[in-house]
Amino acid sequence: MGTLVTEYNNWLDEVNARKPPRFPQIFLQAHRRRYPSGLPLDLEQNILCVETMDNVLKDSEVDARWWTPLRQNSPLVRAPRQLIVHSWADRLDVCHRF
Fold this sequence. Notes:
By secondary structure, the protein is of the alpha+beta class. Helix content is 48%, strand content 18%. It is globular and about 45 Å long.
């Protein structure tokens, strides 16, 4: 478990370094577990939240629309305030709330 936590923390640091100011809050609604029950539930939920951040930050269309203007401190950008994440065993569905 120690290696997993170390890798998780490295990934979290890398993703947080790419987050713009005013990045939306993430609310996770886990409908089914993705990983075996041997993995603590709080760690699984943290992994899913980092995966969500990583995915939305890597999306070039979303980056051009919201993240780059936020990084440039543009007052004109209307970015989401929340990301609602529905977690299923095989996927994450993300809804944006403004």
